[in-house]
Specification:
Elements: H1 3-14, E1 25-28, E2 38-39, E3 51-57, E4 63-68, E5 74-80, E6 85-87
Antiparallel strand pairs: 1-3, 1-6, 2-5, 3-4, 4-5
């Protein structure tokens, strides 16, 4: 085994392939778990099809999403899986 083979294995295992990037606009395909939602203001009902942006990528592979209302005001932050989101 060459030294370059070990280096490649270490580097390739640390790279995470993601579908979305930070600050990318998204649409919710599924309502996030309400127990894990961090409300920014008053609680309002969340519905499928609401828009938002990717805030950060969490270490467990989920996305921390900033969910906005129709006027563009921030409603809450919620962790979401890739399968629950669609690019806007």
């Amino acid at each position: 085994m060459k030294k370059s083979d070990v280096f490649y294995r270490i580097k390739s295992s640390q790279i995470m392939q993601t579908l979305f990037k930070r600050h990318q606009a998204i649409i919710l395909l599924r309502i996030p778990d309400l127990e894990r939602v961090e409300w920014y203001g008053d609680e309002q009902p969340l519905t499928k099809g609401m828009s938002g942006t990717i805030n950060i990528l969490l270490p467990n592979g989920q996305y921390h999403v900033e969910i906005k209302d129709k006027a563009g005001a921030i409603l809450c932050y919620a962790p979401c899986n890739e399968e629950d989101l669609q690019a806007a």
